[in-house]
Amino acid sequence: MEKEKSRRNRTLTLSENERNTLKKRLFSPNKEEITPSQITNKTIYGDLFEIIDLLPAEFVDLLLIDPPYNLDKDFNGLKFSKTNDEAYLAYLKTWFPKMIRTLKPTGSVYICGDWKSTSCLYQIMREFTIVRNRIIWQREKGRGAKANWKNAAEDIWFGTRGEEYYFNVDAVKQKRRVIAPYRENGRPKDWEETGNGNFRLTYPSNFWDDISVPYWSMPENTDHPTQKPEKLIAKLILASCPPKGMVLDPFLGSGTTSVAAKKLDRRYVGIEINEEYCCWAEKRLLLAEDHSAIQGYSNGVFWERNTLSLQMKENKRLGFTGDGQSVAYSLNI
Ligand SMILES: C[S@@+](CC[C@H](N)C(=O)[O-])C[C@H]1O[C@@H](n2cnc3c(N)ncnc32)[C@H](O)[C@@H]1O
């Protein structure tokens, strides 16, 4: 018997009716070359290896790549097995350079992985991009190990195609509580004193400890086994894709990149081999039309973890409306 879902469980589900309607929204390429206008704001349903040579050149501002890691993983029936570094690097080489071909000369690329795949990711990035940084995302959740350290972080490598590139640091500032407020001539130095506490807007570093993995009580959650948080992808998009620019994710999964891009007024294309995941992405995209909040990002700033009630108080104080959390679960279809 199917277990009944808790009322607080907001994990996305699909009715049969929704599934049938959403399938019709997917773009299924034939063997002909694809133009940018055909795939703008679309989810491409298919195998990247069959699509990659049909993609247009130099139409993308930001490539966000969250490939299968070098781990045993089952993506709804598509199984990946852990292999050695040489084989994983060879796998990356079959598609990575072709993805770089889709980037504009001013474009940027981010690629995600865990500590085990990171040396291969660095090698491929070094060969085909100018490597700019490595972000460490402390994602907290991880399986405890008796004879090793719990794996609770991931790497995100950042590179650009050329020397000139877009980077908007002001769009990704963090609002942090000030622990040791310092005053100069009796006035707060670089921080703000409010009835809700003391805050500072800081430049984001390459160590990200303010983002949790999606969990069942969050409206963005799906049953995808490796879903990325919208807040994480939002940071990358705001920093590295100009407004209305184009974001491409060749391993779209549950649709996080496209959804974050849509909420932030960028154009997007995603490619995914699993039809069910494509439908989840499409449902999230439709829901985003009326619900564009990104948990942890409100009114132009990123907040620390577990600060929802504080965010709401601050928004009220600053005169912003909306709680940033309201969501709908079903479509009118
Ligand atoms: C690490 S997951 C991406 C998760 C995604 N970032 C999200 O937030 O849901 C990798 C995805 O790549 C898809 N995939 C693997 N091989 C593929 C291929 N050859 N073509 C298209 N998609 C593929 C898998 O089905 C899986 O959903």
Keywords, please?
single chain, 333 residues, Rossmann fold, 8-stranded mixed β-sheet, 26% helix, 23% strand, binds S-adenosylmethionine
User: Can you name the CATH architecture?
Assistant: 3-Layer(aba) Sandwich
Q: List bound small molecules.
A: S-adenosylmethionine
The count of domains is: 1
Note poorly predicted spans. 323-328
Task: Please characterize this protein's 3D structure.
The protein has 333 residues and is of the alpha/beta class. The chain has one domain (16-167, 210-296): Vaccinia Virus protein VP39 (Rossmann fold), CATH 3.40.50. 26% of the residues lie in helices and 23% in strands. The chain has helices at 16-23, 36-39, 48-51, 85-100, 118-128, 230-240, 256-263, 275-288, 308-318, and strands at 42-45, 60-65, 73-75, 78-80, 103-113, 130-138, 153-160, 174-177, 183-184, 187-188, 192-194, 197-202, 207-208, 246-249, 267-272, 297-298, 301-303. The strands form four sheets. The chain has an eight-stranded mixed sheet with strand order 1-15-14-2-5-7-6-13. It has a five-stranded mixed sheet with strand order 11-12-8-17-16. A hairpin with a 2-residue loop joins strand 11 (192-194) and strand 12 (197-202). The longest helix is centred in the first third of the chain and has 16 residues, at 85-100. The chain is globular. Mean pLDDT is 91; it is low at 323-328. Bound molecules: S-adenosylmethionine (SAM). S-adenosylmethionine is lined by residues 47-49, 66, 68, 75, 78, 224, 226-228, 251, 253-254, 256, 271-274, 277. Residues 47-49, 66, 68, 75, 78, 224, 226-228, 251, 253-254, 256, 271-274, 277 line the site of S-adenosylmethionine.
